Amino acid sequence: MIAYLEGKLLQRTAQSIILATRYGVGYEIFIPQSMTLPKIGDDFFVYTAFVMREDAQELFGFSTFEERETFKMLITINRVGARTALAILSVYKPDDLRRIVAQDDVNALTKVSGIGKQTGQKIFLELKYKFKADTHLAGMGLSSSANTGVFNDALTGLLNLGYDNQSAGEVLSEVLQKDPDLTVGEALRAALKTMVKKK
User: Fold this and answer.
1) pTM of the prediction?
2) Separation of alpha carbons 107 and 114, rounded Å
3) Residue 57: CB partners within 8 Å, gap ≥ 6?
4) CA 35 and chain centroid, separation
5) What is the rounded distance in angstroms from the CA atom of residue 192 to the CA atom of residue 171?
6) Phi and psi (nearest 5°) for 39?
7) What is the pLDDT of residues 156-198, one digit of tens each?
8) How many CA atoms lie within 13 A of 155 on its CB side?
């Protein structure tokens, strides 16, 4: 995994930059349109995320680590590919997305090119679950890189079974705090047992 790159800005296109490293290797990196760039030839540093598809292997670059992590979270959402995630981050910073969720601004994502009302609402709901997961994990003092995927998938399972977001999230937090190494299935079963006992 290439986590960051530094070098000289060699060129910029409509969607990407070419960064020349000191070792004589140049990387094409796709970036949000909102990224502030130096002059051609100046030193530059970007956090990067590598995305491999069936037909391509691409690097995406970000000004901050938080943007990179938000991009990685966005591409785990159904129907959100790397280019859509990049388009979202071209319009909204991570803090903007949290504000949108906090204010229940369901239609805000329709301002992003290529996202219609129905898709925007689905992405919004997924974001709400994922930001909720990050909040729970932060409160647990656990590393989101190890636990967010399990938490999100188990939380989605509980929501599909009719449990509300808050109680399901709290129970999953307790379960994963006791045993952070649970798989999604194990976390879901443990949470269901706990919730049945609480009834």
Assistant:
1) 0.68
2) 13
3) 50, 51
4) 18
5) 9
6) -75, 155
7) 778 778 777 667 777 887 887 788 778 888 888 898 988 887 6
8) 30
